[in-house]
Amino acid sequence: MKGYLISAIKLAAISFVLLCIGFLYFGIDFWFLKALGIAVFDLIPILGSGMVMIPWAVIHLLLGNTTLAWQIGLLYIILVVVRQIAEPFITGKELGIRPLYTFLATVICILLFGPIGAVLGAVVAVVIKAILEVSSVSRNNYDKHRR
User: Fold this and answer.
1) How many structural domains does the chain have?
2) Residue pair 22/75 in contact by the 8 Å Cβ criterion
3) Contact 109, 127 (CB under 8 A)
4) How far apart are CA 76 and CA 18, in angstroms?
5) How many percent of the chain have pLDDT more than 90?
6) DSSP class of residue 110?
7) Could you tell me if 60 and 53 are in contact, meaning their C-beta atoms sit under 8 angstroms apart?
């Protein structure tokens, strides 16, 4: 659990940096505070930054601020793509699982379960690792007692 929490904080920090750069580039007022607030929401599994950014973009679109709406939407898409790429590597490293396995588990879970699969991928990878470790220990104990 500790490793998963550390990886979530690291991913939120990446989101914070990307949001700061994007908000500063787009000239959004109070960019630092807005980026910090959205990064905190990014710690919430599944919902994350989309819980703030999607309604924010829609509101600006409805108000006729189409440029700002598209900028927020583009920044959100960039954020999601970077997070989807970084998450398996960061989570895998923190949980002691090879990044490729975490990445594959995440992709397979996303294909099977949709967006919730992004969270389940790391959990599935940890469960598989635990099962393999237990079976390896059991097999080694069996071999020792058999001799």
Assistant:
1) 1
2) yes
3) no
4) 10
5) 43
6) H
7) no
pLDDT digits (tens, 9 = 90+) for 13-29: 999 999 999 999 999 99
Q: Are 39 and 49 in contact, with CB atoms under 8 Å apart? A: yes
Q: Report residue 39: phi and psi, to 5°.
A: -65, -35
Interval 68-84 mean pLDDT: 93
Coil, helix or strand at residue 45: coil
Pure H helices in the chain: 2-26, 31-41, 50-62, 66-95, 99-113, 117-146
Cα–Cα distances in angstroms (integers) from residue 52 to residues 16, 31, 47, in the given order: 13, 14, 9
Q: What is the pLDDT of residue 5?
A: 84
Tokens of 117: 């699969």
Q: Give residues with Cβ within 8 angstroms of 8, minimum separation 6.
A: 43
Q: Which domain holds residue 14?
A: 2-146
What whole-number distance in Å separates Cα of residue 128 and Cα of residue 100?
A: 14
Phi, then psi, of 89 in degrees rounded to 5: -70, -45
Residue type, 115: P
CA gap 23, 31 in Å, rounded: 5
